Amino acid sequence: KRIRTGPAVDMGNLAELTVGFTGADIAKLVNEAALIATRRGAEAVDMSDFMAAAEHILAGLKKSNRVLGPSERRIVAYHEMGHALVALSLSGADRVHKVSIIPRGVGSLGYTIPRASEDRFLMTREELENRMAVLLGGRAAERLVFGTISTGAADDLQKVTDIARSMAMRYGMIEELGPITYEPEAQTPPPGRDPRAIQPYSEATARRIDSLVQELVARVFNRTLSLLRSRREVLEEGATRLLAQETLTEEELLVLVNRVRGSDAEMHEKQLTPAAVA
Predict the structure, then answer these.
(1) From edge to edge, which strands make up the β-sheet containing 111-115?
(2) Is-contact 230 236, C-beta < 8 A?
(3) What is the pLDDT of residue 59?
């Protein structure tokens, strides 16, 4: 209320981009947007100012001194396009607001910003697996295109592991383990005692949990790899465009994906004709 906003500011669009923000996060967003508008000498805060502020908060500051070589830039382009393409291909996954290969934050060489349509308090097993697939999209794209992998997926893998272990140990979502929670209550062991001593299950069960978590992640990774392989054309074109212009918006990504989906639909229709069946 304390700042003057331009007529083009879309509050609904802005709300989708800030799902999960606390009151303090939103206050920071507004202040940052006002500063950006002030620096460019504007009389009102425009939608572009809010978008730039949200990008700053979600992805970190631009690192103009972090210059990547051609080989690294190419890996990052395919990695980020892998995230974006998987998100756009899976029903129920968050929309993609922007994908970029501009380094930001402490260790980010590129970023993909999702756009959720609403706050979520419950998630199904399928939705959690889709979230894992999106996180694994970067690693899968590297494997598919280069036949090898890089260190760029470290943070993604940590998040995937956390989701998979929660599915196994907290949510009872792995059938082989049954509807049981294996997550121990928060307890502090006595001084000098091994924390594992308060583990409420056997070592054999621990090994089984580890094995099933690995199987779950491997299955989701293979599914992600297969998805990208079937959409290799749009992966290649998206990465090429990222290398040329560094950033792709939601609208630009949808044009790419819809064109491929149109080709897929035509192919499906041909497969249903008598001539094609014969």
Answers:
(1) 111-115, 95-100, 247-249
(2) no
(3) 76
Q: Which residues contact 106 (CB under 8 A, 6 or more apart)?
A: 60
- pLDDT of residue 22 exceeding 90: no
Residues 6+ apart with CB under 8 A from 32: 53, 56, 57
Please give the positions annotated as active site: 80
Go through 47-72 and write b for each residue having 16 or more CB atoms within 10 A of its CB, e for each that does not.
bbbbbbbbbbbbbeeeeeeeebeeee
CA distance 100 to 88: 15
Looking at the whole model, is its pTM more than 0.90?
Answer: no
Q: What percent of the chain has pLDDT over 90?
A: 51
Reported residue count of the chain is 278
Alpha carbon distances (Å) from 1 to 36, 102, 103, 252, 254: 17, 33, 33, 33, 34
